[in-house]
Structures are given as C-alpha cells and as structure tokens.
Amino acid sequence: MIYLDNSATTPVDPEVLKAFVKVNENFWGNPSSLHAFGARAEQLLIQAEKQVLTLLNAKNHKVIFNSGATESNNLAIRGFCHAYKKRGNHIITTPIEHASVHETIEELEQEGFRVTYIDVTATKEGILQQIQEAICEDTILISCMHVNNEMGMILPIYEIGQLLKKYPKVKFHVDAVQSIGKIPVDIDKMNIDLLSLSAHKFHGVKGCGALIMNQYLNLAPEITGGHQMYGLRSGTINVAGAVSLAKALRLVIEPLDSNYRHVKSLFDYAIQELEKIDGVVINSNREEQTPYIINFAAVPIKGETLVHALEEYDVYISAKSACSSKSAAASRILMALGIGEDIALESVRVSFSDRSTKEDVDQLIKALKVVIAQLKY
Ligand code: PLP
C-alpha cells in the first residue's frame, strides 16, 4: 500500500502502541481514586503532562488531555470567549481554519461576537499589518492555525505572538495539528496562550489529544461533571491516551530536523516529477510551505475521481481534508486562498510522514500517469 494521506491520520508507532497497552494492562486505576493504585495512574498522568510541556517549551502552561484537536479547538475558543465576554466581544481569525475552529467562531458570531477575518493571501508583513489594524479595545482572542491542513501553508505564528506582546489583553490560540512534530513549535517563544493538538497526526492513538493552556487563564468548561482535568473536562481520564501521546510527541520531536530534511527531499522530488505531467497544476507553491503537504490539480479531472482511480493502484491520497472530503462543494480553504472553483474541484492532497519513501513517490507518479491518461481520453 502506498499511503500518502498522512494529514488525515498516520499509522500508530509500535512503541506508542506498546505504551498504550502497558498502561491499560498494568496501571488501569482511576487517577482520581484516593488509594495507592489510583495514585500510580495519577503519577503517570502528571509525568505525561510534564513531558508534553517540556517538549513544547511551555513553562506557564497546563495540559487538558482530551479526545483530540476538535475538542481542544471547541474548548479553547468557546470556553475562552464565554469566560471573557465581559472584557470584549471581538475575535480575529482567518478564513482557512479547520471546521472545528471555523464553525465554533461562526456560532459565536451568532451569539453576538464580532469577527474579523484576515486575508492570508497577503505577505507576512501584510498579515501582521491587518492584525495590528484590526485589534481594538474589544479584541479578546486571535485564533490562527500554524499549518493549513489542505495546502500546507505556514502562517507567521512567531511574528503574531511577538506582535501580541504589545496587547496583553488579547490572547492567542493556535491550532497546531499539522505542525506538531513537523516544524518547530515553541509555545513560550511564540507567545501562545492556547494550543490544540491531536496525537493521531504524529503516530499516536486516535481519540487522544490535548489543549495546552496558559495556567493563568480561565475557560468555561464544555463538559461538566466530576471536575477532572482542572475542572475543564469532566469524565474519567484516559491515562493510557495521555502517556502514549507524550511518547508519540517525543518520538517525533527528537528527530524533527532529520525528518524534515528527509520529507523536504521527497517534496522537492515529487514537485519535480509532478510538474512533468501534462495538465498538473501545483497549488502548494507558496514560499511559506511545509514539505509535508502537496496540493495539486490534474486538470480537468475531478479530485474525487482521481482519488478513487488511484485507489485501484493501492495508492491513497485525498481530495480536500478528510473531514470535508465527502462534501461535493469546492474547498472553502482553496477558494479563500485565491484558487478558482474549477481548479479547487480538481485539486487533491498528497501528505507525507517521516516514514514516507522515495519509492512511495515513484509509485504515486507511475499510477498518476496511467490514471490521468485513462481519465482524460
Ligand atoms: N485542525 C486541523 C488543522 C486538522 O487538520 C484537524 C484534523 O484533520 C483537526 C483540527 C481536527 O483533529 P481531530 O479530527 O483529530 O479532532
């Protein structure tokens, strides 16, 4: 199988799975229990939290372990805006956020919050200038993703974080799902207050995620009950999920530079080969681009048709992101990035992981040439 849909999900690393199973076999106590067996589970949880904070350099933060970034984004944005609505009602974001950010903000807009969408087709300086101009007395939150999940575009998180030092009342939420373990993420240096991540995007187990939050912030809980996770996410804690998430994070962050170099060489090679194919239009050619994602169109073939045709050759890529790929409409994200509707409908995404190989790219190109020839004529 040639699996090139790693932005949708990645295979679980055997070491991570081992850690998950080990906790479930031996340390399955409830970390909220008073007895020693529960306390052992609690110790593992505390250790996992420390590891995550150290790996992402977050000194004044705590970790809400949860089911994934969708939950993190909902809690970070709705929980923050509901807790601080007396301070102001203005949110700044981008039109290319994941649905879990986009729809949460749209819902807040219905409740009376005012939203400014930054045009991210501008230069880095242009993006910063728009943010600076949009900030006003009422601004309480900026929510901006680090790497876009369909195009691979990198947003200037470090620079936005520096700008926000001038506005301590404005808090900074970053959806870092597609950057964690791929490009450097330093929570303190980037001046991030709230950061969302999902373990299954970096060889962790599905259903395990985290919201890393500034410990001095308040959030309105989304799930009430037994007050677990600092009172922000009630429900018996998934200790195995937390321990395995910390392990998965360490396994991708330690070799980050060498993994990056490897994936960059695959990206350059794939672009060079794709450009040789008649009708292929590369969408992901921006300067600020992660090599982990290539978005392109094989004109005039519909993205969905191409995905299914490649399946016949055991090659797996995607049309749009996994969560929106079942909708027939052109991608909201590609259109916001200035790509016309026709090309947007014909676009597909190839996404690498550190385990991808040159052989995978060769097989992709070989299959693409065959199916494009079949589908065109
Ligand atoms: N944010 C981004 C940028 C994503 O790519 C995804 C998933 O694809 C999510 C959030 C949601 O993550 P999950 O489905 O693990 O909750």
UniProtKB/TrEMBL annotation:
Residues 2-364 form the Aminotransferase class V domain. The lineage of its organism: Bacteria, Bacillati, Bacillota, Erysipelotrichia, Erysipelotrichales. Its cofactor is pyridoxal 5'-phosphate. The keyword Cell cycle does not apply. It comes from the Bacteria. Keywords: Aminotransferase, Iron, Iron-sulfur, Metal-binding, Pyridoxal phosphate, Transferase. It holds the Pfam family Aminotran_5. GO terms for molecular function: transaminase activity. Gene3D superfamilies: 1.10.260.50, Aspartate Aminotransferase, domain 1, Type I PLP-dependent aspartate aminotransferase-like (Major domain). Belongs to the class-V pyridoxal-phosphate-dependent aminotransferase family. NifS/IscS subfamily. It comes from Turicibacter faecis. This is Aminotransferase V.
